[in-house]
Amino acid sequence: MEVAVTELGWLLDILRRHGLTPDEPGWRVTLAPGGSTDRTYRVSGPDGEHQLTLRLARPGLRRWLRHEADVLRELAMIEGACTPRDVIQITDPALPEGEMLVHDHLRGEPMALRELPAEARERLGACLEVVHRAIRPGYMVWPSLEVREGTRADAFRARVEVLTRYRAAREGLAEIDARVDALRSTDLPAAAGWDEPVFSLLHGDLSAGNIIWDVGRPTLIDWEFARDGDPAEDLAYLTSEARLDPEQLADIAEGYVAAGGEAWAFARLPVWLPLVRLDAALWWADYWLERGVDPLATSEVRARMG
User: Fold this and answer.
1) Model confidence, pTM
2) Rounded Cα gap, residues 50 and 28, in angstroms
3) Which residue from 59, 58, 57, 60 is spatially nearest to 90, judged by alpha carbons?
4) Cβ neighbours of residue 181 under 8 Å, at least 6 residues apart?
5) Helix/strand/coil (H/E/C) assignment for every residue in 205-266
6) Rounded to the nearest 10 degrees, how much is the dihedral formed by the CA atoms of 306, 184, 64, 206?
7) Helices 176-184, 152-162: crossing angle, 10 deg rounding
8) Helix axes 231-242, 152-162, angle to 10 degrees
9) Across 142-159, average pLDDT
């Protein structure tokens, strides 16, 4: 989708004020393709080449944009983190929430993880290990940035309870209560590390559109849902959204563990799978409910409800 340049000239004005683009004709801003929001834009020069990527804050959630900026600056200092570099945080009263993130445009495109060669999936596993290497003292439950103390089992149970905040859950979509009750009764054995108070930085939204591939090398983008938690949750969400089969997941695990990642995270992954699937289904259900569409008539919800 491309928005008319005249509608986005105000963004160019902001970039010029902050010295990020020259005051000359031919520069344009377009809405980035993909995704479900209108908060990510691409800036191209007179030659048509993309130069910058812009990200605006969600309405009322400026603190999350700031959190995303902090996370990206932290990861930029870590070799092998596979994240955007040179992230700039702009404050300007003309912006909807007063702030915006800017970084160099990344070469490459999202690709279906199932269709990539094994070595590419292994590289992604190694990238995720670097992210998860950032140890945290506790866990967060979106949309709060509060750090809670406890064990991985506590984090799992807290994530189960937050499912009920969705409008679709409150309205009883497809027997959600029964699904949540089943998750509440999930066995979390200590042998798999559930009783340990050890947490990591998570990407939080490892869908295909948030992984850019350039000559077989991944870069993780869109860190707005970054939070602290059990790395197995990140791995489970990736597995679910990419619909990886056991052999393809084994490629991720090989790269992850070879880079120093916790092997037991893959033992906890199957326990997280039904939770992250339901969480994603409810997110999409609320998205469509807000637009007056029956969620169960959409592929996004049906695919995740199973």
Assistant:
1) 0.93
2) 9
3) 57
4) none
5) CCCHHHEEEECCEEEECCCCCCEEECHHHHHHHHHHHHCCCHHHHHHHHHHHHHCCCCCCHH
6) -40
7) 170
8) 50
9) 96
CB hemisphere CA count around 17 (13 angstroms): 12
Contact predicate 189/169, CB 8 Å:
no
Helix axes 265-289, 246-258, angle to 10 degrees: 120
Name the DSSP class of 37. Answer: -
Once rounded to an integer, what is the mean pLDDT over residues 149-173? 95
* DSSP-derived 3-state class of residue 148: strand
Q: Which part of the chain has CATH 3.90.1200.10? A: 109-305
Give per-residue pLDDT as tens, 64-102.
999 999 999 999 999 889 999 889 999 999 999 999 999
Q: What's the CATH number of domain 5-104, 2.60.40.10, 3.20.20.20, 3.30.200.20, 3.40.50.300? A: 3.30.200.20
CA distance 38 to 58: 10
Going by the DSSP 8-state scheme, the letter that residue 155 receives in this structure is H
In this structure, what token pair is assigned to residue 77? Answer: 């200092």
Give pLDDT, residue 35. Answer: 57
CB-facing half-sphere around the CA of 66: CA atoms within 13 A: 9
The C-alpha R_g of the chain, in whole angstroms, comes to 20
CATH 3.30.200.20 domain position(s) in the chain: 5-104
Q: Which residue has the tokens 């993780």?
A: 220
Helix ranges restricted to H, 50-117: 62-76
pLDDT digits 0-9 by tens, 11-68: 999 999 999 999 999 999 998 876 556 789 999 999 999 999 999 998 888 999 999 9
Angle, CA of 14, 144 and 66, to the nearest 5° = 25
CATH number for the segment(s) 109-305 = 3.90.1200.10
19, two tokens? 């010295």
| Residues 193-223: tens digit of each pLDDT | 999 999 999 999 999 999 999 999 999 999 9
Cβ–Cβ < 8 Å for 156, 186? yes
Residue located via tokens 């309870």: 161
